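ARCHIVE RECORD
Type: protein–small molecule complex
Small molecule: acetyl coenzyme *A
Source of inputs: curated submission
Record status: active
Notes field left blank by submitter.
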Amino acid sequence: MMTTTDYRPGLEGVVAAETRLSHVDGQAGQLLIAGFAVETLAAQATTEEVLGLLWHDHLCTPAELTAFQARLAAQRTLTPEIVAILRMAAARQCPPMDALQLAVGALHLEELHALEPYAQALRLVAVLPSIVAAYWRLQHGHEALAPDPQLSHAANYLWMLTGQPPGAEAVRALETYLNTVVDHGLNASTFTARVIVSTQSDLVSAVAGALGALKGPLHGGAPGPALELVFAIGEPSRAEPMLRAKLERGERLMGFGHRIYKVRDPRALVLQQAAARLYATDGDRQLYDLATHVEQTALALLTEYKPGRQLQTNVEFYTALLLHGLGFEPALFTPTFAIARVAGWTAHCLEQLAHNRIFRPQSRYTGPGGREWRPAERREARV
Ligand code: ACO
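STRUCTURE (tokenized, with ligand):
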């Protein structure tokens, strides 16, 4: 049994849940999603197939998949209340992650929390792309578009963002991204969601909390800065001096390092390959080549400046490149991550509720004891 003296900052190495949803092997650089290697699943499955796998623990048959897709598509429409909230947020130029969190909280107006957990999960996963796309359009002076129930989850998101029928290649690239980052063990946002439902709170609250955890730059907020860095570097010869200067100033290089992975994050390779396909046909090949040069330079400098730390490329570096190749602005990167990860969050919530025990760790007290109480008039000024 652990005692309060076994304090592990950041809960590093502590096993706090059992899950069938994903397994991260940080030494071998392997990720299993519900039993499948991420390399197998990500580039082949549709988003709906992966979602069905996480929620139902098996691959859907074609008939199950058709029914599941229809159920999900039926939940995409935004209520006028949510559109009104998004309009207010757009008028104040709220960052998209904050607008998304506001809109998710507003699902309480639909009394979503009163439905059974699976129905809450369905609505949450279906509606997140609608919220993000509607907000993006409102923020940029366009009206929000209605979802198209004939389109897949990923295709509909692209449609609602742009108002253009998406090409098959773009849909495939987006699905590969969404599948790659759908779930990843007990990361900070997933842990947040599990803690919230463990109190028998609802999934709306869990997802609102998880969004708050995701947006920080040490978690899901890194890809925007990672791409900005590549753009700021601009050409290969500037990579070494600029990255060195950052490390000399004690700054972190976004898109590198991971609590669990001590070798290259396997998701980085999946996304790099997807980006290479996209940039080969449709994008700016020079940017792709610059990014790979920046990656190699950063890795060499991290070995020099942080020897023994085993800092490798994480998922966010190639997320940035892939989503940029799809035409996404950096401000959309983290909300799009949320659109993927909400599938994992909700699956974890359902799993937690099936075998629930409230999370209640201990803290180690480091303050004084036996302080003397004095009435206010007898307290001395502190110097
Ligand atoms: N650049 C430079 N130095 C780094 C980096 C980095 N990206 N990451 C870690 N380090 C250094 C730290 O400064 C520290 O050095 P020190 O011991 O000399 O002080 C050492 O490596 C260990 O760092 P920790 O913060 O203890 O490592 P931890 O496991 O807590 O952090 C994290 C992991 C937060 C991801 C970290 O590597 C980081 O900040 N990376 C940059 C941000 C990023 O890419 N975030 C996305 C993560 S992936 C995701 O969440 C989806």
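CURATOR ANNOTATION: The domain at 22-218+333-354 is CATH 1.10.580.10 (Citrate Synthase; domain 1).
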